[in-house]
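Hi L.,

You mentioned the student needs an example of a multi-chain input paired with its predicted structure. This one should do, with 592 residues in total across all chains.
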Amino acid sequence: MGKTLAEKILSLKSHGEAKAGDVMIADVDLAFVQDTTGPLTIRQFKESSFEALAKPQQTIIFLDHAAPSPAQQLSNDHILLRRFAEEIGCCIYEVGEGICHQLVAENFANPGDVIVGADSHTVTAGALGAFATGMGSSDVAVALALGKTWFRVPESFLIELNGVFPQGVYAKDLILYLIGQIGADGANYKALEFSGKALAQMTMSQRLTIANMAVEAGAKVGLFPADKITRDFLKEYGRGDKYKPLSPDAGANYERVMPVNLDRLEPMLSLPHAVDNVRPVTQVKGVKIQQAFIGTCTNGRLEDLAVAAEILKEQKRHPRTRLLIAPASRQVLIRAIEKGYIQSLIEAGAIILPPGCTACLGLHQGVLGDGEVCLSTANRNFKGRMGNSEAMIYLASPATAAASAIRGEITDPREFM
Amino acid sequence: MSDLVLKGKAIKLGDNISTDDIIPGRFAHLRSNLPELAKHVLEDTMPEFASRARTLSAAGEGKAILVAGKNLGLGSSREHAPVVIKMSGVGAILAKSAARIFFRNAINQGLPILLCDTDKIGDGDELEINLTDGMIANLTSGITLSCSKMPPIMSAILKEGGLIPYIQKHKDLKL
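Structure written out for the whole complex:
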């Protein structure tokens, strides 16, 4: 019988036959931590009496969640992580380099890899055809030392994408729509596998947005096949030799098949306080917002800033709405400067934050006040997520966030096109 | 983990308790100070949770048992979530369903987590959990509940008291 993408990669990495439901041990190609999960990972690593890394070149520490650090305890955690990197000989990406998932996509992830990260949005690298999944600190500590981990091979949902995005509709709207359909736990323990004619036009930036949010439906991975777009992306980032085509077999067994016609989609929103609380923007228009936030591992890439800059060019943010922009990496920021996007955004009244997670997780750089409403391009709107359990977070595309920043209320981006 | 039968009292929570509910991001600076972080466990969801759990486990009549609805622990991979739940005196977790990473993290911390129909458990109910056969006796209502099975490697990790003690003993992962 044919294999799904998940079964194919895990068969290869377990040197055997991996079928959905099997429990197996897989080689790990890349393991990483970030600054809020790294200290516990190091503690677990040392407690296990491990002394060396299985693959030092493929072990990465990212300082992105508290970057630059807003508190002495977090600064001390950074010292601990830097010291460990030096002692054990692994790579470290310093404060200001960008978000771990963006840097993994730019520099490390390849089709067919197994990637584990102590961060739930590790699934982002599924855009490149990598079996990439988030784990806790103990699991990552063991993967660092042994170069392997155990998995239950997930059953897969096949998401068949056809048609083209209408004007004003983006990858973010698609993934919000899908999460609304599947539910926040509807794909628990499963793999989401994307296919269909629409992939031929779907950029890597869009794929990264979609794969990033697979975990918001409970999924273990969000996998794209590796195709011409993957090859071109790898070439652009200097590792064209790492490309290999990857697609599921004909006759692979899918637990559920979900066809989606992109032509019929419209701009979508997640309402407080659940990611699967999804409605079309047209039904929520007019809600006043005090902050618009464009960035994160979901929507902080060059294409996202381009969309926002296009809408905000020669416009001004609403006087009662703050507009925060956080590029996902240093490279994204440099390119956005070269293209003039940053100039347009600053002229429109935006605050440019350093490349990193910034306001998304609520510990610095844009913490909300009591009763405030934020329209964010991030992936989570749980109560308390942006540092205040009395605040409200709506999730949407960069276009919707940009249009809403101008009006000071939730706005359909198509009104600016 | 030596206790194969665990007795305790239920502290009941609802559906979709996220890792941001368990440890809000605003306490990220306390993540290397676990005793301090544990004081804030679930404080936005149930402000009295930490004191109730502590009182129950100090009373010596068994432990607090966290009982939740569906999709417990959705969200982040922060293993600090089950760590602080355990530190607050909780002996086991029961839920209708749990998010993948949270479930695995709890086992890796040697904190038993079992999936069953938690609608049949009320706040304050006295429970007896048999970890060997996955059966739960609700001593308050007289109802018996059965739990879903976990893969053998997970049972083995739980039996050793978590992933790190398991690795210290076996030096490797064994299916």
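You could point out the following to them. The longest helix of chain A spans residues 72-88. The longest strand of chain A covers residues 156-162.

Best wishes,
N.
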